[in-house]
Amino acid sequence: MAYRVLIADDSPVMRAFVRRVIELSGFELAECLEASNGQEALEKLRSEWVDAILTDINMPLVDGEELLRRLANDDLLKSIPAIVISTDATRNRIERLLALGARGYVTKPFTPETLRSELERTLGVPCE
Amino acid sequence: MSEAAIDNALAVSVREVLEKMFFLDLADPPDGTARPAGVVAEVKFEGNPPGVFRLDLDLAAARAAAADFLGQDPEELSAAATEEVVCELANMICGSVLSRVESSAVFRLATPRIASTGELAAPPEASFQAAVGEGLLRAEIRMERPVCLETGEPAS
Fold first, then answer.
1. Is CATH 3.30.2000.30 the right assignment for the domain spanning A3-122?
2. Rounded to a whole number, what is the distance in Å from the CA of A86 to chain B's nearest CA?
């Protein structure tokens, strides 16, 4: 089975990198959607279904924390698992985002294996 | 945290970020190497303590990093894409250093920006310089010290 993933990050080069790393990792990727902030992510999610969301924290308009809040309060979207990708590995931040509804947290720097493993764990992909 | 510990956190973070996300290995710079001149990115951060992180790369190192990060030929890269990747690199190293220095604190990193060449306004707490491929990289971090009373307690 191949999966559809949405990457929310205000940096185009970071979105391109995450997409490349997913492909390099061997993760079964059907399609990769992109959004430059949380607002754009929510708008895309209204018309396109995805299996998982990978989101940055610091973004304009609607940041990663607010995106998690809005997903959690949306009956249609709350079942889509969101994984935070961030440079911030401080304990307080990780606990706060998991409490807001993030299903996973990947700290930069990360390897392709780490990202694949977190995506598969979150999606409940059976181990090979 | 001591300056030696910050020095170590900076060196470990630079190596880890470049190896894991840029697929680049570092080497010791030649003796007497000057500060690299090419692209400079700066990240200011708020927290306890606040401060500034600065990353200097010469053009060879900046292009090598951007090409590896994006999986493109260095000749295909625009100056804007190279600068954006250098900003991302600075953001990742800064976040990694702060997480090592104060794992239980909360920091807020400002958006990285391209800065002018030259020294930091005040001497850095820690610096790290290395050779990256054919180029050079220098990372520096400066943290504001809390104002202390004569008792040694931080001022409120």
1. no
2. 8
